[in-house]
Design a protein that fits this description.
Helix 2 runs antiparallel to helix 3 and helix 8 packs antiparallel against helix 9. This protein is of the alpha+beta class and about 350 residues long. The protein contains nine helices and twelve strands. The structure holds aspartic acid (ASP).
Length: about 350
């Protein structure tokens, strides 16, 4: 064997043994995030609040993109983006989550690795600082997909996850929202509890469920979502976020994270249905999302939106509500943050 051949072999062996993934041609890096859908209109927004939301979205977008840029997985990227928004009290996830009827936060989260597919989720936790990290641990270190309530917190303790007192999540704004919501609910039919009645998401309260979908250089898709659910929800209510296929889903061809009235997302199996249209009907992603959000979901009375991404890096950020906090960044140089119905 010539010296040149030996050198080539040595270089090949060294590159195979490297820890960082080798860039694969044809897979753009993409991350798409949302920070909740609902009544988000310029007329109701102060310049300060708008700037603050945009800064929060930008921080999450960049946290996720940095992971991808350094060769990290889409799974780590969506976790980083969602964790950033859980720590930001203006979003309805982690600190700053909305309150249930009893005045406490019950948090739901899910994460899914489309290349497995593997999934982990938690529901109704009260003390877990970052529910998205616990969802990841359920996926990585348990034989289960979904853990709820006290059992989920016992698992968190055993895994050394950061637990915090319930007061950590409370913010004055969410306490005020609950009072307002209870006052509004008192004037409603008792058979139509406010969080569930059609159009409830049209109230500018409880906004800010967070989610992310990403594509990494290996071509793997992932999705993650985290929420406090709906203001004034009944104790024990679980929304679509931790229900795999409803509010969160990823497979090898498509990843989706939703935000809106969870009961509608569960009944329409929104996230899976979008991916099924892409996978089985070979619909372009944007068309599958449009069919769901402006067709099936709207017809059923559900309001909200989704972010979605396919394995070619095509993405959609679509909603049938007045607005949706959203953002996208990719390796083709595109970076965008928007809130309103128009492109801004
Ligand atoms: N989908 C969430 C839930 O119903 C709420 C939201 O996205 O605003 O729990």
């Amino acid at each position: 064997m010539s010296r040149l051949q030996l050198l080539t072999l040595a270089l090949l062996a060294a590159s195979l043994g490297r820890a960082a993934p080798v860039p694969a041609a044809g897979h753009p890096l993409v991350i798409v995030i949302h920070g909740g859908a609902g009544v988000i209109e310029r007329a109701r927004m102060t310049p300060e609040r708008e700037a603050s939301y945009r800064a929060g979205l930008a921080a999450a977008l960049d946290a996720g993109y940095t992971v991808l840029e350094h060769g990290g997985s889409s799974l780590d990227a969506v976790g980083a983006a969602v964790r950033t928004m859980e720590d930001d009290p203006q979003f309805n996830a982690g600190r700053g989550a909305v309150l249930n009827h009893d005045g406490i936060c019950e948090l739901d989260a899910a994460i899914m690795d489309g290349s497995g597919p593997r999934a982990g989720a938690v529901a109704g936790v009260h003390h877990v600082k970052n529910p998205i990290d616990l969802a990841r641990l359920v996926m990585d270190r348990s034989a289960h997909v979904l853990l709820a309530g006290a059992g989920a917190e016992e698992f968190a303790l055993a895994q050394g996850v950061v637990l915090v007192p319930e007061s950590y999540f409370l913010t004055p704004g969410r306490v005020h929202e609950l009072e307002e919501e209870k006052r509004a609910a008192a004037s409603q039919e008792p058979t139509a509890p406010l969080p569930l009645r059609p159009g409830a998401a049209a109230q500018p309260k409880g906004l800010g469920t967070v989610g992310a979908v990403a594509l990494d250089r290996e071509g793997r898709l992932a999705a993650a979502t985290s929420t406090g659910g709906l203001t004034n929800k009944l104790y024990g209510r679980i929304g679509d976020t931790p229900i795999i296929g409803a509010g969160t889903y990823a497979d090898e061809s498509c990843a989706v994270s939703g935000t809106g009235q969870g009961e509608f997302y569960i009944r329409q199996v929104v996230a899976y249905d979008i991916c099924a249209m892409v996978h089985y009907q070979h619909l372009p992603l944007a068309q599958a999302v449009d069919t769901m959000i402006h067709g099936k979901l709207r017809r059923s009375g559900g309001e909200g939106g989704v972010i979605a991404l396919d394995r070619d890096g095509n993405y959609a950020m679509d909603f049938n509500s007045a607005g949706m906090h959203r953002g996208v960044r990719d390796s083709r140089g595109h970076r965008e943050i928007a809130m309103y119905r128009d492109a801004n």
